[in-house]
């Protein structure tokens, strides 16, 4: 048998097929025999295929005529079917026109039938309404409340059916009176059932009220029954207070009438110690009601018990606010003696001098924290309630504190202002000779110590805001902090003004700092000139004290910067937490409040967001929008939490630098004040018989004093630099600080000296030689301080050291432009050298 499958493949290759067939032969068979057998088999197969093909072709030819006849018959049947279908379609079109008219007529008939049925039912309702109206009194007389409720419900249904018919107007009024009458009949029984825990009776009475559409009456009766018991819990505080007061008075009488000198009286109970017990008893009461209502009112307990708490807080709200007010006042003796609190102080109805203190607000926060614990327990208890109901409940729980939160910014501003005023920032006072340095040092010490104290106060204010308002009053806090920082910096500025007087630079200045010199009208000398009675040691103590002011500026800048960064981070955290809380709660309110997570357990979405801030902000979208605008801005690194205060800190640093510079340059200014008017510049050379030097070989005292001062200044800056450089990382910064101030003073001294040199009207040859020595000394001092010699000063030295008759040639030979030409011309004018 041959496999004919490969022959039908499109990729059939005869050579490959033959080679494959020869490889399958038995090893003992010869190749020729195998090929002969293979050829024979192929020939036989081909003959069989040819015979089969011939036979099937003949059979197919015989079937062709029969198939032609079948095709003709099918064509005739299709034509006949097409004509029958066309006839049927024509009949359907004719039937469609007549049936449409029939359907329209049937529709009119059906409408008439419906109206007749409605009229019949209305007539029946009217007849029934008349009958019910006539028999309702008998039903009420029987005392069968369910039957009465059913009768009134049927009357209500009949009235809705007959509509606004004048004949039944009296029946409508009668129905309202009867419903009120039934409600009043149910009320005592419902009160008894709720009070005595009669579940079946309560359920039946609930059904009656719902049947007549008076479910609100059930809520009112339920709250009314329990409010009385809860109010007794609330009034327990007043009864204890009265009991303690009577006991105290009785003990006082007994003490006076007794021979004993002392007898203890019953201590009075405070509201802060009593409030947790009230919350515990109220929570226990509500838990019991929750469990009972789950059985008695399984469809209503999620609303009944929360609304009971809401009604409770509304009933005791004003009393609660009053008790909080008095409780905050008891922590401070002054307000305790007057029986006043925070609200009284804010209203201004208090004696002068009594202000809000930190203890007042801390007592308020302590009470608020107690309420927060109770609120979390309530949230857990009412977790199955609708989110809107739960939000209203939380708002009612926190409602006694709302009036305080609305005025939080005012409270915080008053507290911080009072605390800042309590910081010891006395300005410096002028003391006797020898004590100015001590006064300066003490004042600077007070300023430096006040900065961390103030920052601690501000940080405490931030903590209070988070604790009390949850961050919902962060915008008011920012305004208060900014104002308080301005107040504090203004006090520091005033202190700096007093330091200027102590340092003796209250009216001074120089050309470098662009200050106006105040000259004495009589002799033209500066009014800031110090008295020679001040010793050199005190001058240096004043300098050292003035340098310490720089540490105040540095401390204020760094501390305020760190505080502002911390405040900005706090605002960024609030932005995230409050957004999740408020917007999460709002989103859940617009969706299904209670959802199923697929496990059969119900949970409340966004429940963790129900904190004090969310409770306040959800219902005040405008305030929430403004707050979130501020919080979102805090995420920008360029944002200044205290914008105005930041500018004032920079201005304070500039003022400090200005004061320190004035102090450091003041000694230089004193020594150089009269240099331009020294008589030595115009002195004439004396005629002698011997050849003697015509000028002093040494610099004069005014310039040596200035030079010694400048050379000693690095030693004064070194302790301050070491104070700044607490570690190796700041060592370079401290070195730069000392060098910067050294250069600043040296440049100022040089500028003052050159200003004085320009003021010399005439100078003789002898004066020129002396001034040349003075300038050379000062140049050496500047070089020792690694200061470059100004071209103007070197020009003065060159022109003054050159003989008068060679000065003109010096100017004409200055090919390298090493001289400052305006200065050189000025020297020529001073030495009476004609350049024309």
In total, how many beta strands?
Answer: 2
- CA radius of gyration is 54 Å
- The overall number of domains is 4
Order of helices and strands: HHHHHHHHHHHHHHHHHEEHHHHHHHHH
Share in helix: over 70%
Mean pLDDT across every amino acid position: 79
Largest sheet features: 2 strands, antiparallel
**Main β-sheet, spatial strand arrangement:** 1-2
Distance between the termini: 140 Å
Structural class: mainly alpha
Return residue spans where pLDDT drops below 50 for at least 5 consecutive residues. 259-266, 508-533, 587-609
* Tally of helical runs: 26
Shape: flat
Indicate the proportion of strand residues. Answer: under 5%
Pfam families: COG7 (PF10191)
Keywords: Golgi apparatus, Membrane, Protein transport, Transport
Protein name: Conserved oligomeric Golgi complex subunit 7
Subcellular location: Golgi apparatus membrane
Helix and strand topology:
Elements: H1 14-23, H2 31-142, H3 145-162, H4 169-195, H5 199-211, H6 215-257, H7 271-296, H8 301-329, H9 333-338, H10 342-347, H11 358-381, H12 387-398, H13 402-406, H14 408-422, H15 436-469, H16 474-503, H17 536-590, E1 594-596, E2 602-604, H18 612-617, H19 621-633, H20 643-671, H21 701-724, H22 731-758, H23 765-784, H24 791-801, H25 807-812, H26 821-830
Antiparallel strand pairs: 1-2
Helix pairs in contact: 2-3, 3-4, 3-5, 4-5, 4-6, 6-7, 6-8, 7-8, 7-11, 8-11, 8-12, 11-12, 14-15, 14-16, 15-16, 15-17, 16-20, 17-19, 17-20, 17-21, 20-22, 21-22, 21-23, 23-24, 24-26
